[in-house]
Amino acid sequence: MPEIAPLKGLLYNQKLIGNMDKVITPPFDVISPEEQEMYHKRHPYNMIRLILGQHKPGDNEEHNWYSRAAEALAAWQSEGVLIQDSKPAFYDYEISYQESPNLSKTRQGFLCLVKLQNFSHGSVLPHERTYEATKSERLKLMLACNANLSQVFALYPDPTHIVKQSLHQGREQGPVFNFTDSYGIHHRMWRVTRTEVIQKVVECMRDKRLYIADGHHRYETALNYQKLIQQRHPERGERALFNYVFMYLADMHQEGLSILPTHRMFVQLPQFQMDSFLARAADHFEVERFPFDEAERSQVFRDFLAALYSAGDRHYIGVYESGAGQFVLLKLRDNVGHESWLAQLEPPLQKLDVVVLTELVLKRLLKVDERTLNDETKIKYRHDALEAVEEVDRGLFQVAFLLNHTKIEQLQEVANSALFMPHKSTYFYPKVIDGSVLNLLDPNEDV
User: Fold this and answer.
1) Domain boundaries, the chain
2) Three-class secondary structure of residue 263 per DSSP
3) Are the C-beta atoms of residues 247 and 154 closer than 8 Å to each other?
4) pLDDT at 423
5) 152: burial class by Cβ within 10 Å (0-12, 13-18, 19+)?
6) Is the peptide bond before 430 cis (omega within 30 degrees of 0)?
7) What is residue 129's predicted lDDT score, i.e. its pLDDT?
8) Pick from 83, 123, 91: nearest CA to 108
């Protein structure tokens, strides 16, 4: 089971940088090229220079954005922009946000180190597959900087909330930071340094599995980094810092947890033609059309979404193509259990809308191949249904498939069964920011 430990975090010196919102970013994998440019302009010490630097003419194997990130990290420490804590701590972190206009939530979690284990060990479990190119890029950055610049987000089961209560009792009096970011999300974080509290939390976590919610690439990259550093330093023991990964852990039983749907949009899908597609789909789905004219479009869209989100345990999939004058709702028929595409799947996967979309709609009805499904230039993801529809209308995409969100119980069941969902099956909101705490990986230092 997981072995966690406190860390001597590297934190921004707020006396020098001022507003924390000016230097934080989301994780690298949700930052668009336009946002990357915006973060570079926002502040000279913005985290973007460490996690997603810009390519420049003349870059080569030795001098590139990875080496510039390492230079910036070292310079910011020498300038006092980043200061390392003197005592090991857990960092108790609360994020308050609006899930919807009428629903406010607060998610509690804490930042710590977790002993690296291969997934086969069973203490840390994934639920999504990763891209090799992304892991290769992240490894280059990690080797250049010798640091965890971003944390892995994982969930743990704690229905009695003992870990949360212990952390709250051990908080230092004043928060490390307390600010609202440009998206209206409120961030508060406290150090927890009392030895007896840290030990209690360590013991409480020993019998819990960790389920990766966000950061599969970061975790697997940390494993690859560990192997390389172990080869360079075979004399180092189990407590060496590089044998641990920096993580944000949150109780999966708390009310503050939110998972958003992840809609799929295809830049171009030559084999898709709405009428012929719906004719084939009718063998497997009940087809409900929501026709509209421009005067009533907004109301029809709201009615369509209400129908999509009323699925319960049934499989509903929305389809939208610009110019068709309709939203379409596909409702999987109840008598499809005998079909070969479903029978070939493990039971936990059969329960997922994203698997029904991938295996039945895309692969079988539309003959989309694996290469296309794994090509991030051809398929894009959005979490807001209105944004997805508007981008189809603007001609950025040919067709959008709209889904309900994956449930936390489904993630847990898939991970426990050592199975994998399709790419981008879950989106935990809000993302954990980069820039709250960094973790240096001195190969000669122990936890």
Assistant:
1) 4-257+430-440, 262-404
2) strand
3) yes
4) 82
5) buried
6) yes
7) 81
8) 91
Q: pLDDT tens, 284-317? A: 999 999 999 989 999 999 999 999 999 999 999 9
Taking every pair of Cα atoms in the chain, the longest distance, rounded to a whole number of angstroms, is 72
Task: Evaluate whether 213 touches 25 at the Cβ level (below 8 Å).
Answer: no
Q: Which of 95-99, 266-270, 424-428 has the highest mean pLDDT?
A: 95-99
- Report how far residue 261's alpha carbon sits from residue 311's, in angstroms, rounded to the nearest whole number: 13
In sequence order, which ranges of 147-273 are alpha helices (DSSP H)? 162-169, 195-205, 216-232
Sign of the torsion angle spanned by Cα atoms 410, 257, 217, 203: negative
Separation CA 144–CA 158 (nearest Å): 37
Kindly state the helix (H) or strand (E) to which residue 387 belongs, with its residue range. helix 385-393
Q: What is the pLDDT of residues 123-174, one digit of tens each?
A: 999 998 887 888 999 999 999 999 999 999 999 999 999 999 999 999 999 9
Which pair of structure tokens corresponds to residue 266?
A: 């295809």
The answer to whether 400 and 264 have CB atoms below 8 angstroms apart is yes
Instruction: Please report the DSSP string for 31-99 in residue order.
Output: --HHHHHHHHHH-TT-THHHHSPPP-TT--SSSSHHHHHHHHHHHHHHTTSEEE-SS-BEEEEEEEEEE
Tell me the two tokens of residue 311: 């699925």
Mean pLDDT rounded to a whole number for the chain: 94
DSSP 402-436: E-PPPPHHHHHHHHHTT--BPTT--EEESPPPBSS
Query: CA angle, 31 as apex, 320 and 425 as ends, to 5°?
Result: 50
Intra-chain end-to-end CA distance of the chain, in Å: 18
Amino acid letter at 128?
Answer: E
Position 344 pLDDT exceeds 90: no
